[in-house]
Amino acid sequence: DSNNSILTLFDAFCFEPIPYRSAVDEGATHVLVMCSRPDGFEPATKPGIYEKGVAPLYFHSHGHSQVAKFFQDGGQQYLYAEDMLILEKAKLGKVSIPPPKILYGTPRTPEIQRCIDSRGTLWKEAHLFPMKVPRGTPACNHLEQDKDAVLKAVRGGFSAAFDILAPTVGLELGLSGKEAAQLIFPEDDKTTITCDETFLQTKVSVPGESIEMDELVDNLRTCRTKSGNDQLSLYHPLLLGLPGFRGGRLRYLAKDLQAAGEIFSPEQG
User: Fold this and answer.
1) How many CB atoms lie within 10 A of CB 78?
2) Which of 60, 79, 109, 181 has a CA that sits 20 to 30 A from residue 164's CA?
3) Residue 139 and residue 123: Cα distance in Å, rounded?
4) SS3 call for 154
5) What confidence score (pLDDT) does residue 269 get?
6) Contacting residues for 105 by C-beta, under 8 A, at least 6 apart
7) Residue 125: which H helix or E strand, with range?
8) Taking the CA of residue 80 as centre, how many other CA atoms within 13 Å lie in the half-sphere pointing to its CB?
9) Mean pLDDT, residues 180-184
10) pLDDT tens-digit profile of 107-157?
11) How far apart are CA 134 and CA 39, in angstroms?
12) Angstrom distance (rounded) from CA 164 to CA 166
């Protein structure tokens, strides 16, 4: 920018490996958590070569000694283990969600101590739904380069998501998640179905909701009468007329969208 300021960025797995905390902090009350590890996965809690050597060396060399110490003290591993425990508890109902601020593995300042002490009163609660591949599914190595192994892992994740989500939207194709995954992610050889025969090229009928055009037009006219030529003010009644935003769902838009032109404020939604 104009001040030539530098912002150091690193992979999010260091400080929020599963980003449901930020979602809840932004106002989400129901979060679908896509997990990359199978059900029953137990993360390592003892610092290994990466935590004791690779990460500290990297951060020290870039002038971030506090982050290096965070890894050496097992702070990142604590966060990940805490995530696993919270997601497991969430299977039973609403749970208390820690804030995105790092509370453990860092200096215990008065502000951090107050945040920890207020967990029973100020921490937000939310419903989390962890979506995972079945227990016992082999995990794909982070550095895996074998095409068949990567394809198998991709299919496994898609299959798990399809089996859970397809019924919720009324998608009835007579296919299991495994069969759908084989169609969408076919083998790249001459023995399998060709691209134009795959699932992505097949049109299906999906039940939907109708848009009440007469009601929508009346709302737009009323809003135009009140606001004159203010085009931004027309977005609110327009979005409310769409099926996906009915029933109070408009207010769950991201904060930045709600603040745009002050047309998505909670009072209006």
Assistant:
1) 17
2) 79
3) 33
4) helix
5) 41
6) 70, 73, 74, 75, 76, 78, 79
7) strand 125-131
8) 19
9) 86
10) 888 988 888 888 888 899 999 999 998 888 888 888 888 988 899 999 999
11) 6
12) 6
